[in-house]
Amino acid sequence: MGSVGDSFDNALMENFWSTLKIELVYRRSWRTRDEAENAIFSYIDGWYNTQRIQKDLGWLSPDEYETAWYAQQANPVTVEPEPVGQRP
Predict the structure, then answer these.
(1) Radius of gyration of the chain, Cα coordinates, nearest whole angstrom
(2) pLDDT, tens digit, for every residue of 63-82?
(3) 12-57 residue pLDDT tens
């Protein structure tokens, strides 16, 4: 986070709220506050945080990225160093 008065304080959250409104809130209406809260929770926890592709993750969803990361940790690629003085 930035310092007081810094433009970076809200940038990430402003982007998130904008996305939430465009992808969920403006597309439907709810009869009760509970319905709205449940829909927003489902969007955030069931879609945005797990399945929605993200540029910073190489256009993978967080679940796909995490699965790939754990697979790489289970099968790390090791590179053998060349012995010193053995170059052609």
Answers:
(1) 22
(2) 899 999 999 888 877 767 77
(3) 778 888 989 999 999 999 999 999 999 999 999 888 888 888 888 8
> Residue length, the chain?
88
CA gap 40, 38 in Å, rounded: 5
80 in any annotated domain: no
Residue 39's contacts (CB-CB under 8 Å, 6 or more residues apart) are 24, 28, 30
Examine residue 63 and state whether it is found in any structural domain, yes or no.
yes
Is residue 66 one of the residues assigned to a domain? yes
Residue of 78, 60, 56 whose CA lies nearest to 68: 60
> Given CA atoms 26, 29, 33, 34 in this order, what sign does their dihedral have?
negative
The parent domain of residue 52 ranges over: 11-74
Q: Which residue has the tokens 């959250």?
A: 13
Overall domain count for the chain: 1
